[in-house]
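Database export, one record per block. Field names are fixed; values are copied verbatim from the stored entry.
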Amino acid sequence: MALFKKSEPVEEPQPPASGSASGKKAVPTPTRREAEAARRARLNPQLSPKDARKRERDEREKARIKGLEAQEAVPSRALLRDFVDSRFNYAEVGLPVLFALLLLTMLPLFQQYVNWFVYLTWGYMAFMAVDAWRMWRRYKALLAERYPGTPLKGLFMYGFNRQFTFRRWRRPAPRVKRGEAI
C-alpha cells in the first residue's frame, strides 16, 4: 500500500446471511437450562410409541444375535457343525423324499401301491433315524478325543436339526466342504 496514492475502492462488508439486515442474531442465546435440555433430548430422545417399539425390537435383535454368537462359539458346537457339514446326511433330502412319497399316495394312478408307499415312508424315516444315531456315535468318539470331559447336553438335537436342514439354509453357514476331513 502506497502512502500518497489514491487507494482503490474497498467493498462494503456484507451483512450475515442469517438473521436480520442489521446483523443481529435471529434468536437469543439459549439459557443454560434450555441448552442442557436440548443436549439431553439429543442423547435420549422422546420417541413416539411406534419409534420406541422399533428401537426396542432392534435392541432385542442385537441382543439375540450376540447371544447366538456366544452360543455358537462353544468349541463342542463348532466341532459338531463341522462334523455334520463334512458328511452327506440322508435326512437333508428327507423332506423332499417324504413329500414325494406323500404325493404318490394321493395320485389315482398309484392307488394300488399306497401300502408300499407307506412302508417306504416308514422305512426312510427309520433310515434317517439310524443315520442320525450313527452320526451321534461317531461324533461322541471325536468329541471325547478332542475335548475330553465336555458335556453333551443339547448337542444331539442341535446336530440332528442341522443334519435335517438343507445345506444352503444352515446358519451359521458351513465352513467345510462335504468329504473334507475335520
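Remark 1: Residues 114-146 form the longest helix (33 residues).
Remark 2: The mean pLDDT is 89.
End of record.
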